[in-house]
Write a structure and sequence with these properties.
Blueprint lengths: L1 E2 L2 E2 L7 E5 L8 H13 L4 E6 L2 H4 L22 H8 L3 H13 L3 E6 L2 H9 L5 E3 L7 H8 L5 E4 L5 H13 L5 E6 L14 H9 L2 E6 L5 H8 L4 E5 L17 H18 L19 E4 L14 E4 L10 H4 L21
Parallel strand pairs: 3-4, 3-10, 4-5, 6-7, 7-8, 8-9, 9-10
Antiparallel strand pairs: 1-2, 11-12
Helix pairs in contact: 1-4, 6-7, 9-10
C-alpha cells in the first residue's frame, strides 16, 4: 500500500509518524515548531487529533467523567477539562498542514466523530488514523472508510473479534489500503506489556500491513517491532519533555526520534534474507580461519605428527577437519616451518 505515493511494506524502512497530540501546549507557534523539528528528525508524517471537548465528552463531574485511576498521568482530571487542554484548534489544522507540506511531510489526523471527518475532508488529508479507543465505533470507521483514503487503525485493548469486525466494516465501506497498529493503551506503556510478537500473527490473521503505535520510552521496542515486520511506527513527539504537556511524559524528543529513524533503517537492512556461508563481504575474512601448517622444518619422507603439524591461523592450508586424515602420512618433499599443508606435499 502507499500513502500519498509513498510505498509502505516489507523490505522498506518503516513509515515514521510523529504524533503531535496535545504537545503543542495550546500554542500554534509551538505546533509549527514541532512540525519543523519532526521534519528535521526524519519523520515521514505528522499526525494531529481532530476533536473538541464537546465532541468527546460531557461537561459534567458525574462518576466516570473524572479520572480516578491513581496510576494515570491524568489522575483527578475532569475529562472535559482535559480534552479542552489537549485538543488542537480546528483553525490551526490548515497552517500546520501547510507547514508540513513545505517540508515534504504528510500530515493527517485522527478524527473522533463524523463532523471531524467532514472537516478533514475539506483539507484533503492523505490518510486517516482511527485511534485505539475508537476502533469499536463502527459508525466512525464506516465514515472514514467511505472517503477512500488509506486507513491506519490502532488496536490497543481490541480483541481479535473486534479487530475483525472493524476491518470488515472498513472494507465494506470502501477501504482499500489498511494498516493495523499493535498498540498498548497505557501511558507510558512498559516493554513487558507490549507483546510485539503479535505483529507477525496479526499480519497473517488479518492479511494487511501491520505496524506499532508505541507508547514505551525510548526506541528499543520500535526497533524490535521493525525486526518483526512492522512497516509503520508511530511515536508521540515533543520539542522537550521538560516543557510539559498532556502527552510529554511518553513522547520522544527530536534527537531521540532521529535515533529511531537511524536504528529502524539499520534493523531493516540487517534482516536481509536466509543465508548460509560467507557473504561477499566475508570472503576476505576466510584467510583468518585456522588451517593445517607445517610447524617446524621437515624433510621429505618424514611422517606427519603433532610434532610437525599444527592447526593455526591463517587459513591457507588444508581445513582443520582433515587433521586426523593426514596424521601418519609422509611428506613428498622438504617443507619449511610456516608452509601451508596441501595435498601435493603428501606422498
Amino acid at each position: 500500500m502507499q500513502i500519498a505515493n509513498q510505498p509502505i511494506g516489507p523490505g522498506r524502512r518503516p513509515y515514521l509518524i510523529a504524533e503531535m497530540s496535545g504537545n503543542h501546549n495550546q500554542s500554534l507557534e509551538r505546533a509549527l515548531a514541532i512540525v519543523d523539528a519532526a521534519a528535521a528528525s526524519g519523520a515521514d508524517a505528522v499526525k494531529l487529533q481532530t476533536y473538541t471537548a464537546e465532541t468527546m465528552t460531557l461537561d459534567v463531574r458525574a462518576p466516570g467523567f473524572v479520572i480516578e485511576d491513581s496510576g494515570s498521568l491524568w489522575s483527578g482530571r475532569q475529562l472535559f477539562e482535559l480534552y479542552q487542554q489537549a485538543h488542537t484548534p480546528w483553525e490551526w489544522h490548515r497552517p500546520i498542514m501547510e507547514r508540513a507540506a513545505a517540508h515534504g511531510l504528510h500530515c493527517f489526523s485522527s478524527p473522533f466523530d463524523e463532523t471531524a471527518v467532514d472537516f478533514l475532508e475539506t483539507l484533503d488529508v492523505p490518510a486517516y488514523k482511527i485511534a485505539s479507543f475508537e476502533v469499536t465505533d463502527l459508525r466512525l470507521v464506516r465514515r472514514v472508510a467511505a472517503t477512500g483514503k488509506p486507513m491506519i487503525m490502532s488496536t490497543g485493548m481490541a480483541t481479535a473479534a473486534e479487530i475483525d469486525e472493524a476491518i470488515r466494516t472498513a472494507r465494506a465501506a470502501g477501504c482499500r489500503d489498511l494498516v493495523l497498529l499493535k498498540c498498548t493503551s497505557t501511558y507510558p506503556a512498559t516493554p513487558d506489556n507490549t507483546h510485539i510478537a503479535t505483529i507477525p500473527h496479526m499480519r497473517q490473521l488479518f492479511g494487511c500491513e501491520v505496524g506499532l503505535s508505541d507508547h514505551t520510552m525510548g526506541c528499543g521496542v520500535a526497533v524490535a517491532a521493525t525486526a518483526l515486520g512492522a512497516t509503520v511506527i508511530e511515536k508521540h513527539f515533543t520539542l522537550a519533555r521538560s516543557d510539559g504537556g498532556v502527552d510529554s511524559a511518553f513522547s520522544l524528543e527530536p534527537a531521540e526520534f532521529a535515533l529511531l529513524r537511524a536504528e529502524t533503517e539499520r534493523a531493516v537492512q540487517a534482516l536481509g534474507q536466509v543465508h548460509y556461508g560467507p557473504t561477499e563481504a566475508e570472503k576476505r575474512s576466510l584467510a583468518f580461519r585456522r588451517s593445517l601448517y607445517i610447524s617446524r622444518d621437515t624433510k621429505a619422507g618424514e611422517v606427519l605428527s603433532t610434532d610437525n603439524v599444527r592447526i593455526v591461523r591463517p587459513g591457507f592450508g588444508l581445513e582443520p577437519r582433515l587433521f586426523d586424515v593426514v596424521m601418519g602420512r609422509t611428506l613428498r618433499k622438504d617443507a619449511a616451518a610456516g608452509t601451508p599443508l596441501s595435498w601435493d606435499l603428501l606422498a
